[in-house]
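I am writing to request your help with a piece of structural work I have in hand. Thank you for your consideration; the sequence and its tokens are set out here:
=====
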Amino acid sequence: MGMKKREDINKILIIGSGPIIIGQACEFDYSGTQACKALKKLGYEIVLVNSNPATIMTDPGMADVTYIEPLNVDRLTQIIEKERPDALLPNLGGQSGLNLCSELAKNGVLDKYNVKVIGVQVDAIERGEDRIEFKKTMNSLGIEVPRSEVAYSVDEAIAIANELGYPVVIRPAYTMGGAGGGLVYNIDELKTVVARGLAASLVGQVLVEESVMGWEELELEVVRDASGKMITVCFIENIDPIGVHTGDSFCCAPMLTISEDVQKELQRQAYRIVDAIQVIGGTNVQFARNPKNGRIVVIEINPRTSRSSALASKATGFPIAYVSSLLACGLNLEDIPCGKHGTLDKYVPECDYIVIKFARWAFEKFKGSEDKLGTQMKAVGEVMSIGKTYKEAFQKAIRSLEIGRYGLGYARDFASKSKEELLNMLHIPTSERQFIMYEALRKGATVEELHALTHIKHYFIEQMKELVEEEEALKASFMGRVPDTDALRRAKQNGFSDKYLSQLLSVSEEAIRESRYKAGIKQAWDGIHVSGTENAKYYYSSYHIREDKSPCSNKPKVMILGGGPNRIGQGIEFDYCCVHAAFALKEMGFETIIVNCNPETVSTDYDTSDKLYFEPLTLEDVLSIYEKEKPLGVIAQFGGQTPLNLAAELKKYGVNILGTSPETIDLAEDRDRFRQIMEELNIPMPESGMAVNVEEALAIARKIGYPVMVRPSYVLGGRGMEIVHDDESMEIYMKAAVGVTPDRPILIDRFLNHALECEADAISDGVDAFVPAVMEHIELAGIHSGDSACVIPSLHISPENLQTIRDYTIKIAKAMKVCGLMNIQYAIENGKVFVLEANPRASRTVPLVSKVCNIQMVKLATQIITASLTGKASPVPELKESRYSHYGVKEAVFPFNMFPEVDPVLGPEMRSTGEVLGLAGSFGEAFYKAQEATKTKLPLSGTVLISVNDRDKAELVEVANGFIKCGFKIIATGGTYDRLIASGIQAERVNKLYQGRPNILDLIANGQINIILNTPIDKKGAQDDSYIRKAAIKSGICYVTTMAAAKATIEGIKAAKSNTIEVKSLQQFHKEISFI
């Protein structure tokens, strides 16, 4: 392989995709990590830039030089000037990477420093991304696209729409995840969406195109090399027709209802397109086909690795990002050997199994958001499942989602609705569509009726109908007992899970499993070959396989349970932990097994572990792998809540759970027992109580004193948490709370007012513990820790308090016999430290602390967890505290732009999808960089609008003076204005929305405001001022909703004004850390 590589380049710059947002998730960590592996193998030096600290690719060992810096032209120019790379590989960093590459080329940076772009040419990006260029290219090839015209103004768009006829689709150029676009049915909708689209587009350009709603949506994943040789890695059929964004669509591979001839025609067109655009590496081509007349149009291409290419890679075993990187460096497909095909130019996709992808959403997190799917992507994660038949794979996908459903029936209250009510719910696609269809079929809806409403192909609805019929037959014959052998075998082959059967028939899951084992009905496994390797495979289960094809070794093995689908509150950070655990176990000589079902991640890359099982994380699936592989133990503390939910059940069936025991984990979740332990240790907690009904809740709140924090028990990511200020709000909360039972009460805690919140991660061996860092939150208590910005090392915590936090953390770790990682949240009120909660598992801050502090937390934890197997001494006593010459500021990134109807205010419920990290020598500079990395740069001059609630008026003068010292002019509303003038501060008054014109919105629309400081009024008035925050999001203005963040903003502005912002590699920051 070394023979063919390009010799004119030595140092390659890779751009990552930045923070995880809707439409751009951890699939780019997977592609970037693969690229690093490929380029290292070829012997190149790698410089990597990414602002996202939660990724594996930003680990100091992945690339030779790693920059965790904001992804924009200024910072990249500095990095290029410093590092002088020979080449830039832009097609692994999603849309961000491609856009940045185009901008660097336009600004002359690449020419100035003589940087070659490899993999995809800059003009190819334009031909793929610019709507006009793309259309021209397609016309020249004689390939049809939907009829369309480009508009640069609302009036132009109106004229075009009249020509094409409504509905029309609006698509802004150079955006991703369908941002800013949409389907419009009339002129009023058109005006709104076009205005939004022009604002969202980098180049102020939108495309107005004919609607192909309801057509088949078909995707090909094509790989091309420099010689022009092309292969199709995967044919993907979207089961949801056009009208639902592909990121939200339910899909299958291979194509199940598309004839061989049509597939050949799609391939012919795709090859012509990819050849014309001359991409080297992977390209995703999306087609629409009208099932009525067979007309095919190409919708778009992505000349880069994408969410679809991650799916295609995992669905087929062809590592697209890895191969693309090799091809970009001069190899051709025929130079890459493959045990199955000889060489990769001879690759064809195999089809003796079926893959399903199903998305996971977060509508419940966004109050006031509509559960409605359209041309803008809304999903926050996805699962992939593999089976021998469509039914088996489909039902496996449903139980992989972890939404408390183990089959398709009886979701929500759908079963209690009439056929008419159900059909009525199907006019608009929603995240619940498949579950509603299932109940509609049960109520006698015909396949034809459902097809007419959804345009989903008859085949898929017929398959679903057969499942409903089988389910009804099982209920009719076997209610209250286990089905007989034939019926049970058939049910298992069609994907019915043990748990779902137990719910249907009212028998225990255990009884079903025992009968199944007695009858010899068990899962067996088959492998998927990894292209470009001699014989590497990963495995999936099926009840159709006669002989098991997954060979077992007798080596000492450890199994790691992954985190399942990405969601808000459980993201890429947990994948980071699982991957590092696998690396550490490998180093210690164990054979590693990973079980996970998320196609986007590094953990489901075949060579992260020795053996990957691509399976749902349910008791049934994990137990059968455990019984087959017989590992020495299972690690459950790295995958977030997912494996923890299984730990107790697994232990019951004899599984050795390594590290912290399931009992300890339950103990930390049980507020009463945890409080008892804290009392024994003399560690203060905020006063609290538990309530099952309104009367109890009011009594507790009055006893403790408002404000109080209320929440349901047992949740991750703070679901359903609120701060309640009075009796009336408490009554509203209790009425709205669902599923409150005596064993699942509502928890009520005294809310620590104006308290500084902080958290500590600890590495504990049960006897001793070490705290690498205390993170100070920038937002005060009451904002979920996942959403708060935070700084390491801490800034405002007194040495006494820091010592107390360390002491408490170590006391708690010892008392609870924590073995591995732990995270504890604290609040400091008037100099007194309170414990809020303890989580005896890896938390989402692990990658952050590991990188800022240069400590391999997961590796150390893994050594501790396996000490019972290795007999090695614990590393904890040897760990030393460090002294830092830098600060790291983490800032969260939110999807509010995708939910324009939602108030973008922070609270105790987690709503961020990802995070960025700013690193610098001072706090101000690090904060400035963190804001810059979230794409809302702090303005260094201009006008600040201040409108704060009464509780925040105490700090108003200090904050206003801070802005004035930075040279800002102040505009303020009502009470805020009066308070400023009374304190002798210059300000101008502005009208709120209902006080006449010009008002706040006019000023925002006219671009007269640069920063907005708006702290929300309580519950009752929270609606009143949300329009200010929504307008800020819409116009991309820097906005702040807490006084603490306002102070940090002033620090950031000061730092940026007084010195130039430098870039520095992570490796360099680490060199400058010393031990105390």
Q: What stands out?
A: The first strand starts at residue 11 and ends at 15. The two ends are 47 Å apart (CA to CA). DSSP finds 37 helices and 44 strands in the chain.
